[in-house]
Amino acid sequence: MKQPNEKKQDLLLDALSCIDEDILEKSLALRDGMTPAAAETPSEKVPLKGVSANPYLLDLTPPQKPPKKNLWRMISVVAAACLLMCVIPLSMWMVGSVSKNEAAGEKVDTPLDGTEDIAPEVSTDAPIDSIPSEETAGEPEIEEPGNTPVETGEPMEESTEEPPEDVIESVTEAGTHFEPHEMVWNLTADDSMAGYTAQAHNGANVELIATFSGAESAPVPTEDEMALQMVAQWLLSVYALDYGDHFPLFYESFVHEAFIKEAVRYDRTYRDAIQKIDSVVDRLFPVENVNLILQLEENTLLAGDELEDFRTTKPAFQTDRGFYPELITAVRRVRVSGSLDIDGFYPFDWVREILSEAFYIYEYEGKWYLDETFMDDDLSIDLLGSGKADSGFYKMKTTTGTVVAVDDIYLYLDTGDAFRIDSAKVHNQTDGGEWHDFVIYVGDTVSVSHYSLEMEGLTRSLDGVEIEEWTLSTATEVNYYG
Residue 347: helix, strand or coil by DSSP? Predict the structure, then answer.
């Protein structure tokens, strides 16, 4: 005869049999002291995706053999149902927790269509601010060509922090690629004395009167025209401070080494650096017209030992930047004579000294370049670094003297100083201490505030003025004292 405890166990097991046969089988085995049967393999029973790993919490499949109907068993079934009512909300809470975690990105399931949806990995080491939010995510902004900010000409403080050397060495990859400006010469006459006009990069108007020795009849030999135009462009760029027309005369790797590496130190690309220099020059030393009268004296094609000697002068480190001296196919030695004036001022001594030297131009990869020994690597960098008000070339100076000549653009003092005044303020101080606009006349004593960027040794003849050599700068203010 069964004991009361055994009867209770039978009733409870019969009730549980309504839930699952596996539980019943295991429970009977435990009661009888037997080892439970092995669990089904994963291939036989797979948990539902997105829910708890325990599949039995939601397995409400009716049993195949319903229990016998008697009072005690009915009471047991009711008790088991109450137990299930408590268990089901627990299982639903677990399902809700899983769904919440999936929405938070903790779990990514395969879509129902069977395609794999791989979310981009986000490094947990990155700062929180660097991870884009849903509001900021979208199409990347594309900078349109020509949208580079234009300099206003106002002096600005430049960054003094230098980038790492590896950044400087990778200037090509950093977007500081060379953007040469092609200077177009327009032929106005075609004989032994040809006339050309051009528009400089910085906006100056250029006129070239070229004389070709031995070219008594048209057309002028192409090699002579090319050689003289390259020398003329170089003279223009040096004396009009037009570096947008200066650097394109030289091979790119030399420009990178001498100029672009320095531009990177100022956090600027090649285009930005040229724009910065143009804005500084336009404010501190504007040039409107450049006139050249040049005579081609020599244009010799080198050969033999002279050609090899020229190739060996190229520095070896340029090979690292893709320049190979052995690939130079031709070299010409050019000599010219003549004169140049900038808005009516003649840098006579400078031109005479420079034109006494020989220019060398060479052909490389089908294009002609000027020898890099003529490339500026000093003043251009100083202009690029002019960023602070009242410092560097922006530093103000004051000169006082008697006016010996004046027009709408220039003011000349007996001190030998000439000033561009078309953008300057001209004042007269009254007895009450007030300043008013004033018209300057010859004989007036004035005090001129001007930038420290000066060009010395310029010659210009003026009617009734004995002084012929001038130092030229740009004035910001002219004050009359009597």
Answer: coil
Strands 469-480 and 425-429: parallel
With DSSP H G I counted as helix, E B as strand and the rest as coil, what are the percentages for the chain, rounded to 5? 30, 25, 45
> Rounded CA gap, 317 and 177, in Å?
19
The residues facing 301 across adjacent strands are 332
In whole angstroms, what is the distance from residue 304 CA to residue 306 CA?
6
For residue 135, give both structure tokens: 């509001």
What CA–CA distance (Å, rounded) separates 129 from 7? 67
CB 437 within 8 A of CB 428: yes
- Cα of 66 vs its chain's centroid, Å: 80
In 3D, which of 226, 189, 235, 231 has the Cα closest to residue 209?
189
Task: Return d(Cα 159, Cα 161) in angstroms, integer.
Answer: 6
Closest CA to 329 of 299, 370, 364, 305: 364
Residue pLDDT, tens place only, 127-177: 333 334 444 444 433 333 333 443 444 555 554 454 444 444 444 444 456
Q: Could you give the CA distance from residue 186 to residue 200 in angstroms, rounded to a whole number?
A: 12
pTM for the full predicted model: 0.64
CB 395 within 8 A of CB 450: no
DSSP letter at 139?
S
CA-CA distance, 373 to 385, in Å (whole number)? 23
**At 376, which amino acid appears?**
D
SS3 state of residue 392? helix
Write the DSSP assignment of 254-321 as a string of letters: HHIIIIIHHHHHTT--HHHHHHHHHHHHHHHS---EEEEEEEEEEEEE--HHHHHHHHHTS-GGGGGG
Angstrom distance (rounded) from CA 437 to CA 418: 21
φ and ψ at 206, to 5 degrees?
A: -120, 135
